């Protein structure tokens, strides 16, 4: 049942929904058994959300199982258009198809929907939000909010402070993306295939077309035959322009690496105003959601291992572009850096939960 | 015994050495038990070199063992300054320290030395050669020839045809480097650590400071504390300038990935003259040492798996930079591409053997 023709998210959420005397909220997590859904449940529990009830929702085949939420188990219910009665906040960690079909029903039922899929990201009626970057878009308490693509989130959390401080003129980024972006089955495929290879056996790829064990490959999203840009690269370009409300020329290359759940990125930027490495480090150290790991002497920089399970985007290898060395004052407009961030947390579930927190804090503030 | 003060390689090799009536040559492979040395032996055998004798040489602790050469076993001799009597061509696949100590002795003994280490690469008296790019540097039959760094070789094999056809103005490259560049022990560390992780055990890094299983990390070479550029990045910059005899502004970021033996690179370039994707593909298809794998519809592009064991650098994802779309004629100066090449073969052993072949063919031509 497709209901995308009903623009329910054009009206703000009903104020009474977020102004309960108890300040306890009811949550639904759609796709609760998937890689992102599990992480949403874990993060809601660990951050101590003011929650009266969590409803875990998944497809028919998972119904009847249960998921861990804090110290308790919650039963998994099957997704229907009636799933959202009494729900204040629904976090969708499912496919774009599921979101297109069920998000309108959730909004009509009075929930504020935060959708992690690509379904509504480029819809001009729907805010696309990274709280650290454009959290103010939540001020109108929209009914439907889109969570950006994981690579977009990690890149913009790192670059937005530089954009604010020095201006940004040009971006090159090459990604080193974990398999978790393709879900739990992809993570299992990496483990299984790696074990098979170590045992000298072949393993047939299922989730990915290319073997993922001890291999890297161009991102598995569809490649546009006309211009050769793949879906993941297009998302970074288009979502960045929407979130920043400014189209900064951006050249992405998106690649999968045999890493379980944290993405990394090699980034080169041209600033509008020159800056020294110390000035850049200062700006990044003071920025929300970031941790600078940048010890040249110890060769200690961000890695996906260091980022896994954490809330922050790690940034390091902060240096002037050697092709454009700094001026006599140690400043240049040409900068390189390297970052890692947990794809399932800040790249997906955590960002969605932070959106929920900001919506709640606004309503109870 | 250091003999680097004797510039023996300034004199050309004695002509009689390469003008035997039999046209059969004697080879020495130094570091024969290492990752590169093994590959040199395999490649010499499979390419059917006109060889009368191969001497496998390694450090004291490997002496007495034997190595496979074609269908036979060759004993491993211990490296001394007397190791090179009667040798026509000595391929060094050992450390820079070993090369500095023993290459001069080999040259004095009358051998033509091809050294895979960094010891002599930037020495202005020593040619640094990728046969497809600057093979003409071998015309004077130098006594000592340096083999470039693996990342430099792969990048320049792919970019040199574009430089010749359209001119090159600017290069960005992010590498995805296999562990093989750090030797057999690193390959073993990746296998062991991966197995341990899959079994739920921890494994202490030995070769690399960072864990390499299911992880990526900034290249393990020393980082210059003043400018933040690491040794691998510096090699790409400096070696490219020497090989091309032209300093094209180049911005590298070098990263290790959990891949056994083939490197990949995400490359963005600015050409001097605009070109269409078809024109670029044609140039690359016609170029030596390259194979174009670029099927957008099938999402079929180079991977380290496809490159492993092969002689060619694989290149694909050939596209205009989306930040600089093409003109009305489908041409632009801004191009992206993606490549993979076997680090142990074209990145090291094969390039050295190709240098030997070119030296031999000149002398017998």
Number of strands of chain A: 15
- Beta-sheet strand percentage of chain A? 15-25%
Largest sheet of chain A: 7 strands, mixed
Order of helices and strands of chain A: EHEEEEHEHEHEHEHEEEHEHEEH
Tally of helical segments of chain A: 9
Give the domain tally of chain A: 2
- Rg of chain A, Cα atoms, Å: 21 Å
**Separation, N- and C-terminal Cα atoms of chain A:** 38 Å
The second-level CATH architecture of the largest domain in chain A is 2-Layer Sandwich
Query: What is the CATH T-level topology of the largest domain in chain A?
Result: Dihydrodipicolinate Reductase, domain 2
Spatial sequence of strands, sheet with the most strands of chain A: 3-4-2-1-5-6-7
Low-confidence stretches of chain A: 1-8
> Roughly what percent helix of chain A?
25-40%
Descriptive overview:
The structure is a homodimer of 365-residue chains. Chain A has helices spanning 35-46, 96-108, 131-134, 150-166, 184-198, 231-244, 277-286, 304-307, 345-364, and strands at residues 25-30, 51-58, 66-69, 72-78, 89-92, 112-115, 144-146, 168-176, 217-218, 250-253, 255-256, 262-276, 290-292, 313-320, 331-342. Chain A is globular. Chain A has a seven-stranded mixed sheet, with helices on both faces. The two termini of chain A are 38 Å apart. Chain A contains nine helices and 15 strands. In chain A, helix 8 links the parallel strand 13 and strand 14 (313-320). The first copy, chain A, has 365 residues and is of the alpha/beta class. Chain A folds into two domains: 8-148, 3-Layer(aba) Sandwich (Rossmann fold), CATH 3.40.50; 152-343, Dihydrodipicolinate Reductase, domain 2. Chains A and B meet through strand 8, helix 5, strand 9, helix 6 and strand 10 of A and strand 8, helix 5, strand 9, helix 6 and strand 10 of B.
């Amino acid at each position: 049942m497709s209901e995308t023709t009903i623009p329910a998210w054009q009206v703000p959420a009903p104020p009474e929904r977020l102004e309960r005397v108890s300040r306890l909220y009811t949550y639904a997590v759609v796709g609760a058994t998937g890689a992102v859904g599990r992480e949403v449940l874990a993060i809601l529990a660990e951050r101590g959300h003011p929650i009266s009830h969590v409803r875990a929702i998944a497809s028919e085949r998972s119904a009847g199982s249960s998921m861990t939420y804090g110290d308790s188990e919650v039963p998994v219910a099957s997704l229907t258009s009636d799933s959202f009665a009494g729900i204040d906040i629904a976090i969708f960690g499912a496919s774009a198809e599921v979101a297109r079909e069920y998000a309108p029903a959730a909004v009509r039922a009075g929930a504020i929907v935060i959708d992690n899929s690509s379904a509504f990201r480029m819809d001009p009626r729907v805010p696309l939000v990274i709280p650290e970057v454009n959290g103010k878009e939540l001020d109108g308490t929209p009914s439907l909010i889109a969570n950006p693509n994981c690579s977009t989130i990690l890149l913009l959390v790192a670059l937005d402070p530089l954009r604010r401080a020095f201006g940004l003129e040009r971006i090159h980024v090459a990604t080193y993306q974990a398999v978790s972006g393709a879900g739990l089955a992809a993570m299992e495929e990496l483990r299984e295939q790696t074990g098979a290879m170590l045992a000298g056996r072949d393993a047939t790829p299922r989730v990915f077309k290319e073997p993922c064990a001890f291999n890297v490959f161009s991102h598995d999203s569809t490649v546009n035959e006309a211009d050769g840009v793949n879906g993941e690269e297009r998302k970074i370009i288009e979502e960045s322009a929407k979130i920043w409300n400014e189209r900064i020329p951006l050249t992405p290359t998106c690649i999968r690496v045999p890493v379980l759940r944290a993405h990394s990125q090699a980034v080169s930027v041209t600033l509008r105003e020159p800056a020294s490495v110390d000035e850049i480090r200062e700006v990044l150290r003071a920025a929300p959601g970031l941790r600078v790991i940048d010890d040249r002497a110890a060769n200690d920089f961000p890695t996906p291992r260091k980022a896994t399970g954490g809330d922050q985007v790690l940034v390091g290898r902060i240096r002037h572009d050697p092709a454009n060395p700094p001026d006599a004052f140690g400043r240049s407009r040409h900068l390189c850096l390297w970052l890692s961030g947990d794809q399932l947390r800040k790249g997906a579930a955590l960002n969605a939960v932070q959106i929920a927190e900001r919506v709640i804090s606004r309503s109870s503030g």
